[in-house]
């Protein structure tokens, strides 16, 4: 398995999960800091490692009238502040090659959205930035095809790559997760992450916004841990009902500690099974 550093942490962790978590989009400085403070508290209490995530801009919303951000520079400066204040690596999405140069100085990880996972120029630009690159598997892609996406990044000399499963299109307005994809993507030699919240989406099913089935979060996250993921990805919000994006699938911040506790315990059990 390819090993590399993300900020001050080494990925993948030996024998334990790491977590990527944060709001779907940076809605305000106070909200982002409140989430980071809770992640830091959970991290110390449960002895787990977090990478903070937050999109500085959303470019692929269902509707043209949907919220896309508070302003690029302001949101990126909030991410940089969180990295500095909490000593926590940070991740954000990029959608075009021009965004890579803008965002890279502020973050540790550049994420390629699922819809863009075959965009060669974007993958190459992200690789050349020197940042860790997290590639979301397209809803239309087979797991083994992710090796080709990773190769576009690694051809730049950057092998600091993570691959993320987030469900596959199943007809209209629905996603399913084929957990065979976890070990299949692991065959690339790169760390594999399961996106536990986007996998619950019902794309376009909410009259101009994505719906979702948050009630299935823990069963699917448990399955991903059992299937052998290296990390888990969650979107969390202090008040999901009022979230300006992905309101149907973000986890309430007050409930997140319990989710992490259960998944960490399951991970320990799985490690014990594998060690015998």
UniProtKB/TrEMBL annotation:
<protein>
    <recommendedName>
        <fullName>3-deoxy-8-phosphooctulonate synthase</fullName>
        <ecNumber>2.5.1.55</ecNumber>
    </recommendedName>
</protein>
<dbReference type="GO" id="GO:0005737">
    <property type="term" value="C:cytoplasm"/>
</dbReference>
<feature type="domain" description="DAHP synthetase I/KDSA">
    <location>
        <begin position="14"/>
        <end position="267"/>
    </location>
</feature>
<comment type="pathway">
    <text>Carbohydrate biosynthesis; 3-deoxy-D-manno-octulosonate biosynthesis; 3-deoxy-D-manno-octulosonate from D-ribulose 5-phosphate: step 2/3.</text>
</comment>
<keyword id="KW-0963">Cytoplasm</keyword>
<dbReference type="InterPro" id="IPR013785">
    <property type="entry name" value="Aldolase_TIM"/>
</dbReference>
<dbReference type="InterPro" id="IPR006269">
    <property type="entry name" value="KDO8P_synthase"/>
</dbReference>
<comment type="pathway">
    <text>Bacterial outer membrane biogenesis; lipopolysaccharide biosynthesis.</text>
</comment>
<comment type="similarity">
    <text>Belongs to the KdsA family.</text>
</comment>
<dbReference type="Pfam" id="PF00793">
    <property type="entry name" value="DAHP_synth_1"/>
</dbReference>
<dbReference type="GO" id="GO:0008676">
    <property type="term" value="F:3-deoxy-8-phosphooctulonate synthase activity"/>
</dbReference>
<dbReference type="GO" id="GO:0009103">
    <property type="term" value="P:lipopolysaccharide biosynthetic process"/>
</dbReference>
<dbReference type="InterPro" id="IPR006218">
    <property type="entry name" value="DAHP1/KDSA"/>
</dbReference>
<keyword id="KW-0808">Transferase</keyword>
């Amino acid at each position: 398995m390819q090993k590399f550093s993300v900020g001050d942490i080494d990925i993948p962790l030996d024998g334990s999960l790491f977590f990527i978590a944060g709001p779907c989009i940076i809605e305000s400085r106070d909200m982002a800091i409140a989430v980071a403070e809770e992640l830091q508290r959970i991290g110390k209490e449960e002895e787990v490692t977090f990478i903070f995530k937050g999109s500085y801009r959303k470019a692929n919303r269902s509707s043209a009238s949907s919220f896309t951000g508070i302003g690029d520079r302001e949101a990126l400066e909030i991410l940089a502040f969180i990295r500095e204040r909490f000593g926590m690596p940070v991740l954000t999405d990029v959608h075009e090659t021009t965004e890579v140069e803008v965002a890279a100085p502020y973050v540790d990880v550049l994420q390629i959205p699922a819809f863009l996972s075959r965009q060669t120029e974007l993958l190459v630009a992200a690789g050349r930035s020197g940042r860790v690159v997290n590639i979301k598997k397209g809803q239309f892609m087979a797991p083994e095809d992710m090796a080709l996406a990773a190769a576009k990044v690694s051809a730049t000399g950057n092998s600091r790559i993570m691959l993320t499963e987030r469900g596959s299109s199943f007809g209209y307005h629905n996603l399913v997760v084929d957990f065979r994809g976890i070990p299949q993507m692991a065959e690339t030699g790169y760390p594999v992450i399961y996106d536990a919240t986007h996998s619950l989406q019902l794309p376009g099913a909410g009259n101009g916004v994505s719906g979702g089935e948050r009630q299935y979060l823990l069963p699917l996250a448990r399955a991903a841990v059992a299937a052998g993921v290296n990390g888990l990805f969650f979107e969390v919000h202090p008040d999901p009902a009022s979230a300006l994006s992905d309101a149907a699938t973000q986890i309430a911040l007050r409930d997140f500690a319990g989710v992490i506790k259960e998944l960490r315990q399951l991970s320990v059990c799985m490690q014990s099974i594998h060690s015998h």
